[in-house]
User: What shape does this take?
Amino acid sequence: MSREELIAKLNAALEGWLDTNEQARTMPNNDIMIVLRSESLLEAMGRLRWDSAFEFSVLMNHLGVDYKDRFGVIYNIFSPSLGRKLTVKAYVEHEKPVVHTLESLYRGINWYERETYDMLGIVFRRHSNLRRLLLPEDWEGHPLRKDYVYPESYGGQDHSREDLLDSCASGKTAKGDSDG
Amino acid sequence: MAKYSSKEMVLNMGPHHPSTHGVLRFILQTDGEMMVKATPDVGFLHRGLEKIAEKVPWQSFMPYTDRIDYLASVNCNLGYALAVERLAGVEVPERAEYLRVIAAELGRLGSHFIGFGALLLDLGAVTPFVHALRERETFNDLMEMLTGARLTHNYVRIGGVSHDLPEGFLDKCREFVDHLEHEFIPEFNDLISFNSILINRLANVGVITEETAREFTLVGANLRGAGVPFDLRKDEPYSIYDRFEFDVPVGRGKFGQRGDCYDRYWVRVEEVTESCRIIRQAIDGLPGSGETRTRLPKVFKVPEGEAYVRTESPRGELGFYIISDGGKMPYRLKIRTGSFSSITIIEHISQGVMVADLVAIIGSLDVVAPEIDR
Assistant: This one.
């Protein structure tokens, strides 16, 4: 199946579930990316997973992104029968980021979603075990958010320091103030 | 007469335990000698690499990739470099491509020595581990010659590699590969692989079927051990892997059921020979002279866009999902590693096994803790 055929097929099969603002497009690594509406993520991904015309049965990767005005959840899926990769993206509002879990489709996604929750605070509805994964349970905030403030201390230990990374990146000398 | 209670017991394995391969903790629910469930608890080595990536320029993130998988750092360098190059459209000189393949395959060898060596050590076989470590030592020497470092090599650059070859490296490399293929592997197999005690410990233990492996997104040697002939070097060739001839070993149930611990062990042993074949071909095909690095602009910026690029590291699919907003630094960088998916399956397959077999299962999945936590 050629790329154009697959895109046409995807558009037909996912009609009504796709985000109307963004078209299917080709990424720099020749993958196809489609954007779904976040409320229909489960139905649409279910179609991609089980429909015999697609069979995207392998989850390669999942991540969340903070776009400042909204969040994005991204799923990289692979279809061994088609030999094709697909990147699926959905946008979630920034105020109350909630999206349905895909555990019923990909069992291995459990920890990926936990990591996204841990790092970005995106809540996966009906997830079986939505706890922090990498950070301690009593950690405050979600580090991969763009507005994350570095903690001054944790567990009674002082962590305040000059923000070396920021000063390295901007080429200036280290300053005392943090980026906040 | 006192009654024996049959209550479940909760035990802590780790974070500092000799057979957890790094700082990794398991909460074990046991019923006598049987395991009810083993729940992994991770995050002890979390360094926030993904956050650091958003704060440093594109080239400066390269040394951090060494720390993702300390047993095979060149492979992590390569994965990151390929992802950035794909996004930025940077071409790599021919000679650098060959040097990358040689270094990456050496990295795979070095990683597998520890991979199966440590599995044997965990099972109580100390001598074979020392044999594997002896080869790892030669690998370290070779890498020191090539890159200047023994552990965190930081060899690959965006657009090429950091140095050209030192004098005499190729001869030593060829000697090493010949030694492995003709002396080490046959000797190692006679010593331990076909040892009936080892077979009893590994065969029919921790069986992962093809279906479960796919469901839990297993990758690399663990997936191939379950009988799926999937290798990114073959199925989705990156760099110049399409120029080399090699086989993809898969689990066939050599001494028991397909997908058991022995199959995963055996796939790694066989991959050593395959990597040797690739290295030999890469040495033969290496262009005599030429550039080893593309010149990049002083302020290197990557055009706006996003891509997921995956490579076959010793622990399976190593993927970098990079989002660039056109700036000097990544906007978001996600590292997808093989160990992360291997560890999720432990909870599932550890149900109802013997406590002593858990060590074999963890070892056979070749989990490296910093790769999980990043």
About this structure: Residues 94-122 of chain B form the longest helix (29 residues). Strands of chain B lie at 9-13, 25-31, 34-41, 156-157, 160-161, 305-313, 316-324, 332-336.
